């Protein structure tokens, strides 16, 4: 390995200056230097380059289609494509995952992952999920104890046509998923599951043509979903509790400043629970704050709160959102045995609610133990979906700035969390960009 490393590019003064290398004394880099390992110049495959990398290194990938699955077990390395559309990790619909991040402090940037049977990018502290054991492709990891991977970054990644999730953070915390694009996720485009406290920020992403744009299951505690465009899926966003994952129940997420529109797109994979035409769904989730989102054009409902037979949805606050042109703007519907408590609305622009009059009868604040009213409405039937492999190919997406000149990215141990007061309601002008999925 030492001989193979001799030609690698030494990069000094990059990142945080915290000392490159791992102190192994191999003589392959001076103190404070970090190495750039180039694909295919220094290694013919991305996996081969990752195997050479040490903490603080950058794996920089030239344009090409790489038919492999990449597993990153070394902490604090950066995997970056030179071209977001040009660097493609292709699972050929036979590999479970495009990129698996199983070490802390890793950044995955500026590339495309597609055609994987499970996930485009999987970030996880679960050994069962890394190994792809039965049941671990989506949720259940059996009796495995919870181990949360700490710190990650996924930025400027295009994840398309994957059989479960485009970008999947499971049993992970202290991370950021940002400025990425997901489509063709047969379960959801972006998924965060099994973390508390999460300290995860999902921001400034575009998620369309998925079964669900964003899904958070048993994910809460400094969990922020902000400034995303969730348009033209079957369901825009869900936050929910599920017995198939640990750290039940879901609670304490902030959903703010998102555009959630036109989520009844036919040319998408079918949603597992048959969901269709819903902007935001809260199923058995509690203590969530839904703030200044623009929720429009969802033919079933803009926002639904519901629960299962044993998982209530309590103390959710829906404030200062704008609802328009939805079948029902806000609908609350509960099984008789699990009525929610303490859910309330304040300052929203809306037209219809089920039950009627929620804006006044459930105006915040309400007592935490007050029973949430429940009603029902006729939902439109969901049409048949299409295979995830047939979802429309994405158009060009923005490049990561400074791709060719920047060194490795330093991923902080704890990400900076958004200031809620600074998160604005999305402008109506952003709806113009949804014309493509409306017309499809």
UniProtKB/TrEMBL annotation:
State the residue spans of region: Disordered: 359-410
- State where composition is biased (Polar residues): 360-377
Q: Which residues form the Right handed beta helix domain?
A: 98-240, 253-355
Keywords attached to this Swiss-Prot or TrEMBL record, sorted alphabetically, are: Repeat, Ubl conjugation pathway
Q: Which domain of life is it from?
A: Bacteria
Q: In which pathway does it act?
A: Protein modification; protein ubiquitination
- Among its keywords, does the record have Repeat? yes
What is the recorded name of this protein?
Right handed beta helix domain-containing protein
